[in-house]
## 1
Amino acid sequence: MTLRQKKNFSGLLFLLPVMIMVGIFFIYPLIRVLITSFQEWNVMGGSKFIGFENYTAALTDDEFWLTLGNTIIYALIVTPMIFVPALLLAVVLKKTSRSSKFFRTIFFLPFAISFVASSYMWKWIYNDTYGILNYMLTSLHLISQPINWLGETWLSRIMVSIMVSWKTLGFSMIIILAGLQGIPNEVYEAASIDGAKKSQTLRFITLPLLRPTLILALILSVAGSFKAFDHFFIMTKGGPLKTTETIVMYINKVAFEYYNIGLGSAISVLFLIILLIVSFFQLKAGGFSNE
Amino acid sequence: MSKKIVVLLLVALFTLSGVLMASTTLILWDQNQSTEKIVKMFNEKMENEGKDIRVKLEIIPYDQMVPKFMASLSTGRAPDLYGLDIVQFPYFISIGAFTDITNWAKSQPYFDELPQGMMKVGMKGETIYALPYQIDMSTLLWNKDMFKEAGLDPEQPPKTWYELVEIGKQLTIDNDGDGIIDQWGFNLAGGGAGAYMFWFMPFVWGNGGSMFDDDGNVTLDSYETVEALQFWSDLIHKYKIAPLSSVQYGSGDRYNAFVSGKLAMYLGGNFNITSLRKDAPNMDFGVTPIPKNRGGFATFGGGSLLGITSQCKNVEAAQEFMAFIYSDEAQIEAYAPNLQLLARPSLYDNKYYNEIPQMAAFADILGYALTPYSTNYNEIYDPVQYYFESVFLGKMNAEEAVKKCTEEIKQIMNK
Amino acid sequence: MSKKTFILLLILSLFFMIAIYWTVLTSFKPPEEVLSYPPGFITANPTLEQYNKLFTTADSIFLRYAGNTFILCGLSIAIVMILSILGGYSLSKLPFKGCNVIFLLVLSIMMVPYQSLLIPLYDLMNKLNLLDTLFGLSLIYATYFMPFCLFMMKNYFSSLPATLRESALIDGASELKILFKVHLPLAMPAVATIIVYVFLATWNDFILSLIFTSSSEVRNVQVGFMNFATSRFTQDWGLINAGATFSIIPSIIVFLVLQKYYVQGMTSGSTKG
């Protein structure tokens, strides 16, 4: 075998375990979902093929567009809330010093709590009758009336985003920290010799070198926020008046409350396509390629 | 490499140890931890009698009851018995997920005492598929200490809408004059359409209105419904005895408010009593039916029914187990200590209930229980939630809401 | 860092810690204090009652749940590491025609919510007899946590120069050896990250365990304590907080142990170019 063939063969071999796992546990169920999306699926068997009916039903359903819009708006709010602090903190805390270690642990801590538990916790904190947030704000006379943090559309989006940001920025911080390890010290030394200010170093040296890492963290974060379910389900139940209902909540409703798995599958396929397009653009923006 | 093998072996051992060695193992799905006790008692009994039937309990939380059931039905792995949420039965019966147990059920000695309203939901025509199992009802709980403090008779809870408002006004208090209400007289119930059905419909029924008639026609579009919607809205906007935020309060939120002393009258149920005694041991509270207006007292007959699924391979064994579940011994020893409402009202006079004064009210309340029947129950949630919530938030006129809601429900029913 | 930065960080930390402090505090409060208002920021009667309940309910089955979850973590981490280290290296250093398609397919795993795949996946697991088994569940975890890890390893390997591999090849090393002996030691920050990620994702998983396992012998921690603590209408706050507090501990330990890989500061220079 030529060197090139040998290389390709090894490449394939090394990727084989991944391909097998993905093939069995993802591709196979996904194909089933695709098939089901063209059916009127019956729990007890005997499903009927109905062509694109499910898709037209989804695309003409107001709730589909409403929840899609809600989800996009939420993703737009929460992503910078996670990212900007994560990046700044990573840059500031990348040294080995004691204080850095302490702070890194503090900011990581919330990530160690499960999503479900923290949704319940924060719902409690935000409550207008007995929650500690209002208690503290009114005791300090910063507000005169308790605020219904989760009862009003934009406010609840922001408050839920704060909770999510609190919970996940620690992990984004770690991803970026790991990425920062790949940037050799000499680069920074050279920059400071050249007289670059901290902000200039960040903008012109760190960020470009960090691009692949940032794109990774971004894609992970955006995909996560598009899939938002638990926190809204627990904290707002999609209210008020469905304005915080996310698209996954809608899929869940269609599949398991309306018992319509065929339609649920169609919406899932649409969702996947949308998210793939979004990620594709993110990857393109990151100038992504193999080495 | 060998480390991985050891791990795999350990895993295999763990999984094997979970397999029972009986010739008939029945799988029971239930959301209630206390059912474990009944299962234990039954397995012991079977061992003593030398019978080869064993039961294995799998706990399914409320939110997963439907998804897991649908998944398992479609793969032929449904449980043998299922204590499923009552309102899901019409749909699952209609697709053939449960077995006909009519003759067996009628032959049971306690058959006649089971609540008929709930039983109907487990039937199709005259065929019985499931029996009332665990009962949850919506009631009003009131804080007697707060009544006393406000100079009201602690033993006289509101019985009518008018009384609810009058009493509520005296219980909505700003203690320290800072403009913030420290104690609310009442909270609405929200957090999902299921909540409106469970907590709000009794107000409609108590006003003489209804959602469906006996033939399954939609009867929501009536002025009794409009009045009830307006009443709830007025509690916030006109009489101001409930905060606007409570439109979205789930059970947990209202419970917290009640326990922390921020709420005087609380829409709660039997399921709260055990926790209340633990979380608020110094509170003296009572249980009373939801206040009525033009109609009679009403409550939502909720909870779960117990049925044998159509994928059960040994229906006789399953029936033997069911018979045991409904026996005096099982009902009283397993469920009564946790103050679970038994399906058999004749057993309400038991030593566990008798220790708790609040339990006495439930025997009567059971008589007022109603449960709506619909195979599209979940689908009608959506318009119910949207339009009712709009009215409570003050964003839509009650008459308009009822009209639109009824239209949408009719559309769903006619699909 | 400058004094100003330090103070800013301290204030931010305070904000971060309030919710956690509250969780931990509440877990030590007796039931009648848990929901009291005004909320107490310290408790006069700290008690282990909630933890006692957590650990002794149903014949101390919670310990079994914890044991199960540790096994799950071990299995998932092992499987994911193999998949993503081999795969990441392949995508980065041994690209072949069409490997990008595979990469995109793997990424799309992150784009599908479990609700969509629930029924066919359940059916598949049933057919493979992997339902209600720890091993089966760890395979699901491995598949669904792997995309991020694969991406992470690929990225990291790509930041290492091609000359590394080339010179090792000239020395006659096999591809496997080049991966494990040359590249992997330099990629420890990425490896540490994926270990932390998989551990946490497995330890904190609620929904996948709920769907794909049913018997208590195979239950995990999150489902376990949520079952104790919640029902349709009720939530036992003391217990929820006790469970949450207990849950944080292993995750923090894993994080602290692996911290040094994030901040070596010494990986740079000597190996570059």
## 2
Amino acid sequence: MKKNASHWSTRLKICSKFLITMKLIFFIVLLDFGVSFASVYSQNQKISLQLENSSLQGMIEQIQAQSNYNFLYSNADIEGIDGLNHSFSNTSVKEILEVCLEGTDLDYTLRDRVIVLKTAEEEKEKQPATPPDERTITGKVISGKNGKPIPGVNILLKGTNQGTVTDMSGRYNLEVPEEGGTLVFSAVGYQKVEVKIKDQKTINVTLKVDEVAMEEVVVVGYGTQRKRDVTGSMSEVEVKEEATVSSPSFEEALQGSVPGVNVQKSSGKLGGAIMMKIRGSSSVSADNQPLYVVDGMPITSQSYSTGGNAPTNPLADLNYNAIESIQVLKDAAATAIYGSRASNGVVLITTKGGKAGETQYNASMTMGTNTPSQLRDWCNADQYMTMINESLNNVVDPETGLYDGWKTPEALKDLYIPGWRNDNNVNWQQQALRQGMVKKFNFSASGGNKKNTFYAGLTYNDQTGIIMGNDLEKISGRLNLDHQASDNIKFGLSTNFTRTQQNRVTSDNTWANPMMLVAIPPVQPVKNPETDKLNTNTVYYNSLISIRDGRNKRKSYRAILNGYMDIQIVKNLSFRSEVGTDIMNQFEKTYWGRQTNWGQPAGEGMDREVGVRNYNTNNYFTYDWSNDIHRLKATLGMSYQEKQTEGSRLEAKGFPSDAFKNLSNASEVTSFGEWGYGNSFLSYYARSNYQYKGKYLLSLSGRIDGSSRFGENSKYGFFPAGSLGWIISEENFMQNIEAISYLKLRTSYGITGNAGIGNYESYGLYDGTTYVGNPALIPAQLKSPNLKWETTSQFNVGLDYGFADDRISGSIDYYYKHTTDLLLNRSLPATSGFGAVTKNVGSLKNYGLEFAITTHNLKGQFSWITDFNISANRNEILDIAGPEISYGSNYVIEGEDIGVFKLVEYAGVHPMTGDALFYKNDGSGMTTDDYNEANRVVAGSPNPEFTGGLNNRFEYKNFDLSILTNFVYGNDVYLSAGRYQSANFEWWDNQTTDQLDRWQEPGDVTDVPEPRFGQANGSQHSTRYLHEGSYLRIKQLTLGYNLPESVLKNLRISSARIFVSASNLYTFTNYPGYDPEVSSLPAGGSSQAYNVMMGVDFYTAPQIRSYKIGLDVNF
Amino acid sequence: MIKRNIILVVFFLLVSVACDDQLDVQPQQSIESDKALSNPENVISTLRGAYQSARSRWLFGSQFNEYSELLASSGDLMFVGSHKEPQQFMAKEINVTNSYVENTWDVGYETINILNTVKSAIDVLDDSEQDRVLGEVLFLRGWLYFNMVRLWGLPYEPGQTNDQPGVPLVLDATLSSEDAIEVERASVHQCYEQIISDLKQARDLLPAQNGVYANTYAASAILSRVYLQQSKFELAATEANRVIEEGGFSLVNTPHNEYNNESNTSEDIFAFQNSLTDNTIWLTQRYASLNGMGRGDYQMSEDFFSLFNSGDLRGQIQQETYDSYTYEDIDRMYYIGVGPIRSGGINTYKYGNYYAVIPSIRLAEMYLTRAEANHQISSQVGPNTPTQDINTVRSRASAEPLPASVTTKQIRNERYRELCWEGFRLHDLKRWKKDIAGYSYDAGNLILPIPAAELEVNDKLEQNPYYK
């Protein structure tokens, strides 16, 4: 008997497949699916089987692959049973077993879906000569975590091999001998429980979650790691099903939820670029965005949109619903294995796979509205006329009555703003903005059996934006397949296809951007009253014409495919090969009708096509060995990535009518082009993690990275990192401290690189062009043969903690990043004929603190969980080996943080003259009314001092409520458009109503100078337009209701949730513009321009506020 | 089992090794600088690149013209656009960060570097081509420096030392970043010396015919402009006379026909070329207000037309215009604008189509220069009297001839009537020492600031006093 008991426990360990099933089932429960399958298993399921010289093992595998049956057996028992030659068609499993087991000493029993194979001796041993009286115990096993039933719990009568497993509703029944005994309840991820039967008939058990045994595994670069063993700084983003249903994109879900990560949407335009900064800006000229890796493949994340428009966001092609987990790698210990592209952090995205078991379906739909997060107050017709007249009267020559010796104010108004004499009062803001809508449908199915699992999903997402002419439609499909070919070989494929179709508006800095409609005076009608067609005689271009007669489409077809093969070569040593491609084909079609500002006289169109092909392969060995004291996990591998971009463009004009928009209808080609470029990376890496006694951790990694982008003298770089960890709570002296449940101290140091520059910046180049139809050449770039990566060394120290049984948990990190050899676009004297050359000069640093805490404030029927995180990053430019770098008012200055605003300081209005005053800032403390006399000073910064988020989640019975807020504190925003729209009626532009508070007569104390038509009185670049950008935003508020089980049973579905949610519900801010989350990205800008030009608002669309209602069903 | 594993592992490793050695990814639409100047074809192509660069909006393509007309304007030209930069020129109050000024500086020196680069590779060319190419290089370089020194330096003062700062003279190519050195401003005197030296050489090296590229007469014509600016009248008259008498150019029959042509006319001594697929649009954008062409930023005041007699074809306004009108429908030199924005003003016909060539050096100018120069020193270089030369230009415009012995004022007015909006006005007013919009001709705000960005990279540069 004794022998058999130990036998059983060994069996449970070695039957890995069984464990996997248990894990998967456990997973389902964890995901709160609350599934209760109808427990109607066909005891007589019929299958077909071909056995040719097969082993019994082979037979078992085939049956498992084809049916729902699981086997329990000891390897020793079935070893050596082979040579099976049978052919079954449509035969019941029972029958097959009987045939195949004939002549062996094996017997089988079948309960529910579990087939137990035992030797006849065991049977005999077990069965006493006379069968004892038996009785039946029933009961239910629930989880201590959420009170939900646990399927697949193994229940064993201690000391025997009598046992069973719980069904999908956690129920079991087991026949036990009359004399009773002890039942052992065990399940993966839970602590084992033993219960004495005594005379009980019903035994209900609650299993406690076993945190240690769970061995929670996290995804790291080239492999996985046990969470406990992690010594680097990384944050896992919880991907909640409810969030994937209601949130449009995963990047937005990251906002405010990960310490050290600052995500900013540039505007409320759909499909616009997203800026993500992990631990600040580590570069001035090179890319500052993290590396995005999906299922091992570094994907294309840059915009390939036409240089004439603001960048787009290729990450939007990823389907949030299909994402399983997101891992943000922050310090060198975590990122250095990505070598020369790791300085800005790495975002690892893993997509969903299937889980063995009955096919699970999920369907969700969300509908809602999009509205601008904020509107502004603009002058109405009366206010406008009063002010423009005042402004004109202030400057006309009192003698001649003429403006600038030219025309009378009346004549000027007739010339510029015809329509002013009629009673028009147009709110042009309402012409630019609208209420949009959002629709999202998602359907997925996943499941499989032991050998094959799959996940298939389809998502349709349709949104109309808040700006006229802006919408986005996306269809995305995913199919992930995994196949366990044998115990040693597993392979699979994940595929993602996306079609994104976007109607775009032009970049902020063009008159065709609808946001610029606000400049048109309210006295000018939208439509010409005579023709009832759109008014073509407005003082500024009426861009509604572009929306009516033009098109500005972007379509992108994206396929991300990743295949892998895992080979367990020998025990402890495995090999994994991954091959991936990311192919993006993008088509842009624009057409400007004959009445638009660009399309006259006969229409102008452009077709542009870009293909980005990105190939990657990773091949690595993993060695995993452990005993009671030591554990070693080592990785050694290589990867190669190659990216090719090809594009072409054709512009033509002269269309028969605006009904013809295809270029084949054009009469003349006006411009064309073709381009191609590429880059490659070849890398070798190694890593080892060593753990001693479960509490001392050491990790070392290194990568040798070569890139085509680097100069011929420095093709390869080396990027090492090392880290240490100490799980203090495992120490003996900590065991008595009840309050502390987990404490880990970790520190790391390492070197990473940044290769985010153009593909050929080390070359001296001549560009081809033409003059009079003949080929021409122009020197374009000076040679830089020593060009290499930027080098960032990063030190990190952090503490992970858990108190009071992990009711309070979190982490705190301090880091210091020092970047040298900046890939700097170094300015040259323009007299040399070149503006700049890219050189490895200069340095900067970032350092900061990150703090995250999760508290389970209330548990039980009413539960309340709070997540809070806050981070502070400080950036300082140490050396740029040259003059200040500037884009507009944003500067890069030594000793300051990147992108600071350097501006003349506005000093208000002279109370006696109405002149705008500026501080001279020459040390005198004086003010001046001469703008040129004032010196510019560093007046603000677009970099926040603190960012973070606070998420509260409440659950009561079937209701859940979550409130996610995020905040940004201490940054400034330059409202550059204020120079036109809040410029005390200096020109015809309609003004914000705050301009009514202008200076009128001596003695007036105000901030708005006297309106003087045609004269810059305070409208120059100055701190007058610099504002605090801090905000606290109710980012997401969701109220959900889970349909009760009673209803679900009747509907035969496992769970259903109805929710209402609001995004960007309210923003607390002092910013006077539309929205403080803003970045007017320069059209076709360099990465340096994007890095430096932060926090500028120039006719930028407000963010979107949306209200949604949705339904999410699992069945 | 183990065997199969090993086969697979070896297979994948072999595949991954096979994609090794791929770090050499060559550019596709550019060529490497080492190769660029290695053969005659590429050197010639680079010379064409210099023409293209010189035609840029920031130089001869528009801004040289605009700066002159805007700074000179005192009522005749109105700026009704929205851009802040031209507004500053109109107000004679230019910011040191004015981006137009910076671009003109940058592109100006970019072009000079292309020219210097071609010059550095002159030996790569066949002997037969060397003279012509060098001539073109020096012609463009001299002309560029002439425009730049007039914009950034205080006026050339005849008979003075002219040691006021001009512009940095860069005469050698930047072939590596080590060549990108800081250069200080040369004096106005030194600049003119260099300009004259370049142009004289160009005149002597260039052939009489050279397609749409510079010929010897173009060099003479610019040389006459330079001398006229210096009030070296005899030399100016001599060079102008050479063009008129030897060049074989002739005035087109009406002023109207000189503009918006797809190729050079008999009157064009040199014109920058535009075509459908390759063009500079800004002269048209600014000055025109037509269907599909122009945004009507620059309009003429009615007062301006008092300068013309009624019969003068150069001063007539087409009142009746329609939205559909393009330059082909305009038959006068001025018209009421019909563009989508800022329509209804008076616009010039001179730049009605941005696919047309830009007449940059016209024969009419040579007549006016010869007349003025001869008149100033009472000489008669060439066969005509000043009056005859003036009347040659007038009669082509159907303006009644002036009586004998024209006055200085008449000559100057004629020059304005003929060459208005072609970038001459500021420089003419300066050499005539005329006040401009209430400012003295040598006022510090009538020249441009050295761009602030450039001062930051080059410690040797000194800002113009007005902008300090």
## 3
Amino acid sequence: MSTIASGEFWAFVGVVAGIYTLLGLGIQLEFGFAGLLNFGHVAFMAIGAYTMAIVVVKLGWSMWIGAPLAILTAAAAGVAVGLPTLRLRADYFAIVTIAFSEIVRYVATNEERLTGGTQGTINLAGAGEASSYNGQWERFQGWLQSTLHLGSKDVTMLIVVWVAALAGCTALWAAGRTPWGRVLRGIREDEDAVASLGKNVFAFRLQALAIGSGLAGLAGCFYAWQFSFFSPNDFAPLLTFFAWMIVILGGLGRFFAVPVGAVVFGVLFAGTRFFDFAPFSWFDSAERAYLRLMVIGLAIIGLILFRPQGLLGRREELVLE
Amino acid sequence: MFLQLVANGLVTGAVLAIAAVGVSLIYGILGLVNFAYGDVMTFGAFVAVLCNGRLGMGMVVAAVLAMVSTAILSLSLEGVLWRPLRARRAGFMSLFLASIGLALVLRQAIFLVAGPQPRSYDVDPYKVYVLGSVRLSGAQAIAVTVAAAAIVAVALVLGTTSVGRTMRAVADDRALAAVAGIDTGRVIVLTWILCGLIAGLAGVLAALVQSSFDPNFGFSLLLPVFAAVLLGGIGSASGALFGGLLLGLATEVSTWAGFHGGVNPIYKPVVAFAVLIAVLLVRPQGLLGRARTL
Amino acid sequence: MSTLLEVNGVVRSFGGIHAVDGASFDVEQGSITSLIGPNGAGKSTLFNVVSGFLRPESGRVVLDGRRIDRRPPYAIARGGLVRTFQTPRALGRMTVRENVLIAAPQHPGERLPQTILRPRRVRGRERSARARADELLTLVGLENHADALASTLSGGQRKLLDFARALMTGPRLLLLDEPMAGVSPTLRVQLLQHVLELRERNGVTFLIVEHDLDLVMRVSDVVVVMNEGRVIASGRPAAVSADPRVVDAYLGARP
């Protein structure tokens, strides 16, 4: 193997895993608990990221306002999407949500004045001016780093993201154990039965969608801060599929399985970068990228065929049918 | 200008329609929302470009070879993936996710083998058919006529042959068909062959109309195809047809200047989705679909 | 006695066939009313219409003076009309106790703001709900399965679970869709006893679809007979069983 990269690289992998955990938590709530086939999840991440960036750059507001606003906007978007579509049957809902995520990507690409267009947020302040929404974040990060006597920027980011991710896990785990969570699980099992017992299935689903979308919005903010610049193509359906895969890998129905899936996936995906042996060595780096995605596709199929309950799930409680 | 848009719409719509019929049959008979369909279409398009470009064969031969190759691909996938999944009593969700994984594998494989650069078929780019105020390129004319012929052929197969009738019976009610003694195994094989052929043809036609295409093009076409299927009503082949034509027309015609300047052509896919959502709001089961039963 | 449920001229068709073709009958408060008729008479469809799972094309359904025929199922259930299903609908991947707990009416814990702001109130309600759930499970004889997943229950046990769950909601009118099918004879007797007790002590009204005519005639206050989408007779069991139209309907029923 070639040199296994420095701790910085793995810190970076950890940050991405943390961001994916936040995304995956939303999916775990929406599907693992409420049975919703939301395949447009990445759209809410995009909405969160763009809202935060736009608020900071174009309105000049503090990121401490921008981020909560981003989460609320993403959650509101979730409600807006859910209102007309939650009454559709599951397979229709899945496809309509993908369509929605593509629409968001389209709008972000074409509405240059609002989002900076295809070149991304570097364009937010208008052509010719390289803009950055990251100033406040870098300062906050620097302050945290020196206060906690941490070695590097990446480690600081790692800690912040994972504090958020684990807080999310805990909050959702607690919510899942409430009577509210019980109704959600009932809806996943048999929505007609639950309706016949007097529960407003639509309202519960809408709540799950709103919370899941808000979490995706938070993931979007962290994505924005981590990568400094982003463009619409960063939010392709592929990310939604990755998030789904992480949730299934960890095991559906358990919130604390999501970070496990994210870390395992992140390590494997990043680790394959260093495979210098055959068959990887036959290909150049551009081709290896294709190969790695192929491996991910095969892994998804393998998971479904051989271990649909994921790493931490139990066969009898198999949520994936 | 308006008629030109209508003509363009019919071309796009015809290609969408034939692809949508394939997707719809797979859903109706196999219960599978096949996310890999777009990439199977891409596969066909690339096989054709290999034959047509590299090997210098004519478009017709290339297209036929493409169709045969996608049919073989579909059958192999049935043996390697779908049948084992059905043996494990995989439900809708598992099949859907597996098809997403499969789509990823196919697309990356095509990238790997053929590379990311755009391709084109070896057809005369200057050939133009003029009908009144409407101009159709050679590619468009071929696409619409062949798609129309294919639609008619598929309709005849489904409507008049005994094979077609069995397929429709299984699509209608799989459990009942099995109880009634229909050899569902055979129907499944025939379905994959038919839908494989359709996918190959649709891929080649779509690539023709687009004039230049890369390995991503099938997947980007997949969403409008799904929209057409949902619009027509999932499980209804005639609905898929209708949905495809309607969406093709709607997206092209929406750019007409007469509609308050028309929709920005960049937003054409958005128009397709908007039409879909508008219809689903009023009729959640699609235009010709069956309402949800308790 | 006052009328609790009024079904008036309900029509509902599928693909051109009138499954329910102008059905009308009343259910008196505190009664056990049975709905019988040959297969295909439209009983299930009528149940679905009354409980809100299907919309009638015309006609009215009135519960305690208020129209419910275009309201969603959950709203009708909250209004006191709860139904069970012909094929039991157990929530498989949840425990038996959770299946009953989920039916607890007006539980503040089902609203997230309440859970966060008033956790003690939620906990208190959950405790009382749990006690009631265990009571009901004992009533139907499933107390030993309380912590097992509902998917491990047999068909007959699932029917009992459905029954317990429906009772948990504290209904005024309970629609039972073939409650005795698939249940052992001893259990049938027990179920029947529960029905009668619930009627006596809690004033619960019952509308039951049942094929066991013997049972129906013994226990019902009112028998409503449907055939081909319409109500052809309605009244006390003795009168109905002697009615020539009813005899005709059963003898002339499609095979």
